[in-house]
Amino acid sequence: MRWTRLGNFPMRVQGGLAAGARWTLYPFSSYWRGTSDTEAAGWVDKFCRPGGTALDLGAHFGLYTVGMARRVGPKGQVVSLEPEKTARERCLLHVRMNRLSWVRVFSEAASGTTGAIQFVDNGGAGSTTCYVSKDSGIGISLACTRLDELYSKEGLRAPEFIKIDVENHGAEALSGAGWILDGRPEIMMSFHSEEELSGTRGILAPLGYRVVSLGGESVEWEKALYKTAILTTKPI
User: Fold this and answer.
1) pLDDT tens for residues 188-213?
2) What are the two backbone dihedrals, phi and then psi, of residue 109, each rounded to the nearest 5 degrees?
């Protein structure tokens, strides 16, 4: 079905993060069925208000991008980064299907430098397990950018909410955020390794960030390993 027109058959998202949005039948039917990332929907409701700004790092097919854009509305702005070509094209399709002109989608990977990184795309199938390689001999070369440079160059509004799910590259992405973190945006982040967690803690803890579980409880940083958590400086 992946290679046929049936995969693009239009659907309505039945619930969750992008409830009511137009979507495509295949792949990842859990997205339009509304059964993916259900715990996160309430937090997106809380942090993405009309006229607000959001950043989606690791946008994949655009579930969060579309959901956040529908919440902030035409006076808001959503910026999405997705370096994997197949996933990015599907994300752009979903943005067009929903006429979300206030969304900007970029092909670069967020990183600590602007230049190039080695990226493992797992055969170009739009997998959620694509990742930035630490080995220069593995993967393909793709463009990367510091977030502060991208935002300054493109004249983008600083994000009030950031969602990060970039398969172990989250700390490097945040290390390039520079002045963006001065505004203390709320962050929802998925942690895939101790290295990613400790690197993120080293960047955010000195800025006053603490960890809140998706259930709303304050927890120690170590409790976020292999989970998705909220990182905030504000009362919840």
Assistant:
1) 999 999 999 999 999 999 999 999 99
2) -95, 135
Query: Who wins on pLDDT, 29 or 156?
Result: 156
Distance CA 191, CA 214 (A): 13
Q: Give domain status of residue 3, yes or no.
A: no
In a domain, 22, yes or no: no
Range(s) of the domain holding residue 88: 38-232
Question: What are the residues facing 14 on neighbouring strands?
Answer: none
List alpha helices for 19-62, DSSP H: 29-33, 41-47
Nearest-CA neighbor of 39 among 16, 59, 58?
A: 16
CATH number of the structural domain spanning residue 175? 3.40.50.150
Containing 105, the helix (H) or strand (E) segment is strand 103-106
Dihedrals φ, ψ of 234, to 5°? -110, 160
Question: 132-158: per-residue pLDDT in tens?
Answer: 767 666 778 899 999 999 999 999 999
Q: How far is Cα 38 from Cα 35, in angstroms, rounded to an integer?
A: 6
Given a contact cutoff of 8 angstroms between Cβ atoms, the answer to whether 23 and 3 are in contact is no
Q: Which helix (H) or strand (E) holds 194?
A: helix 194-204
pTM of the model: 0.93
Q: Is the dihedral of CA 149, 64, 119, 223 positive or negative?
A: positive
Q: At residue 49, does pLDDT exceed 80? A: yes
